[in-house]
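WARN no homologs supplied; continuing
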Amino acid sequence: AQCDVMKEDASASASTLKHKTELNNLNTQVKAYEYYCKDYLKKYADNEKLKIEAALESIPDDWLISDNETQGISLAQTISLAINDRLSKANACMVERNTAEMERLSLECKLARLKRAYAVVTLERKCGVCFERLGDDGVMCVYPNGTVVHKECAKKAVSYTHLTLPTICSV
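OK structure emitted
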């Protein structure tokens, strides 16, 4: 009977030892998985294809992400830098979009002012290029500064832009 008890104790010890070994192997695998996951997140945290929010939600609660690492920066610092980088890029895009919108609105405003521009042509009014009377033919150009010229004089002014146009209209 004593021999049977010893056999049971030996069997229980072997079973316990087997379970401890399996548990140690499992813990080693979990630690390796944790290491590789953290390493992956560190390497690819700044990659825009990685959904950093989803990655953070999938990290188990018992993992330390702010541990002091001997080499390089911690996972928490890496993730923080990646999030800050993405926020900076989002802000830069927003600023660029708003700047483009402001430019568009400014151009629309200038166009509206130009469309409102008109000129009163009297008998005394002279062409801004040839200084001849404008006449009654009605074919003329009006510059944004209000200068009125014959259509043919405007064509000449355009062909000699560097010489004539700045004196006609500096706008």
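Helices lie at 2-44, 52-58, 75-116, 151-159, 165-168.
OK
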